[in-house]
Amino acid sequence: MIRFEGVSKVYPDGTRAVEGLDLEIEEGSFTVLVGPSGCGKTTSMRMINRMVAPSSGRVLVNGRDVAGIRPVSLRLGIGYVLQNAGLFPHRTVADNVAAVLRLKGDSRRTGRTKALAAMERVGLEAALAERYPAQLSGGQIQRVGVARALAADPPILLMDEPFSAVDPIVRDGLQRQMLDLQAQLGKTIVMVTHDIDEALLLGDRIAVMAPGGVLAQHADARTVLTRPADEFVASLVAKDRGFRALSFAPLAGIDPVPLPAAGSDGAIDLGTLAPGWSLELEHAGASGERRGSWRAPDGTALRVTGSVSRADTLRKALDAVLASPHGLALVLDPGVPPAVVNLALLTPLLTPSPGVATGGVSGGRP
Ligand SMILES: Nc1ncnc2c1ncn2[C@@H]1O[C@H](COP(=O)(O)OP(=O)(O)OP(=O)(O)O)[C@@H](O)[C@H]1O
After folding, report:
1. Where is average pLDDT lowest: 49-58, 140-149, 177-186, 234-243?
2. Is the pTM of this model over 0.90?
3. Which ligand 1 atom sits closest to the C-alpha of 42?
4. What's the pLDDT score for residue 288?
């Protein structure tokens, strides 16, 4: 859907920002441009909506060279979220979100209705509609920026470091919401970040840019992590690389140990798996979701905080095992009796992936 063909950009002062970029961004993908500061990520992204013109090469959107599309009509089909959201300070939240809708010719009333719907989609209460940007938290401001970009339902969304100015907890929430939105809306998203963790979390395709504005690798997250194309990409993903790779390893393939039925007191005796310990399960909430507590030999009850499902990743299961008071992670799946896994069961899966030998998980094997 978006295609860079031999694109280079040299700014008037001679700075070579992007060098011979060939990149195809598939429709419906979440593509993250990642790399250190100054390697041409923003410049590349801005060439998609003609905020920057290539010095050579072409950028095609749906097969059309953007150079031949009027910037205003091009941008009506491309939402854009900036790092500081770029809201109009003297307009209310609702008016900010409705800005593109009004440009597109929607009436004030229709614009407002669509703006409120977009706000709801990104988790903003309607009560915030009449506030001004200065009356919002950083996380709310970013949500308004996303709502504004989505309000006119453009097929393409560009995001430039959208979550870098908020604290880590707010950022986690925003990132999770982006994944939900992408799953629901199926937009083509292109995001710029210098944070490799954010790229690996969000991107189903990752374009790693290297100094000099050169594309070093374009692949899915797992491939970037386990088979970096060169030394530069390898150094970018070096930290916790083996541990991160566990996020792509499915738990499927091991058989959790099924637990016996509960005794007359409602407790499941963990037997030799954890001598003296038992488990109590209850059905909680409207969905009847199962929740549990471990009961220690001295009678102390500890809420099970990290149960996993067979569909989860090895990383999540390993984390649950390590965080558990007795080395057992509870495995719960609908319609299946409760079961557990421990380190001994997970160990055969902890073999390093090819290409992750250096700094991989082999050194950490029990
Ligand atoms: N308008 C401009 N005029 C001259 N040079 C520019 C201009 N905009 C960007 N540059 C330069 O082009 C290079 C690439 O910048 P760009 O913003 O695309 O990189 P980036 O990877 O997005 O970096 P960052 O993460 O710091 O934003 C940098 O050297 C930058 O200084």
Report:
1. 234-243
2. no
3. 22
4. 64
Residue-wise DSSP of 254-306: S-PEEPPPP-TTSEEE-GGGSTT-EEEEEEETTTTEEEEEEE-TTS-EEE---
Check pocket membership of 210 for ligand 1, CB cut-off 6 A. Answer: no
Q: What's the full length of the chain, in residues?
A: 366
The full set of domains in the chain, from first to last, is: 2-248 (3.40.50.300), 257-349 (no CATH)
Q: Which of 9, 16, 37 to mutate to test the pocket of ligand 1 (most atoms within 8 A of CB)?
A: 37
Ligand 1 atom closest to the Cα of residue 213 is: 14
Query: For the chain, what is the mean pLDDT?
Result: 88
Backbone angles phi, psi at 78, to 5 degrees: -135, 105
Tell me the helix, strand and coil percentages in the chain, rounded to 5: 35, 25, 40
249 exposed, middle or buried (CB, 10 Å; 0-12, 13-18, 19+)?
Answer: buried
Supply the pLDDT for residue 210: 95
Q: Which residues pair with 156 in a beta bridge?
A: 78, 188
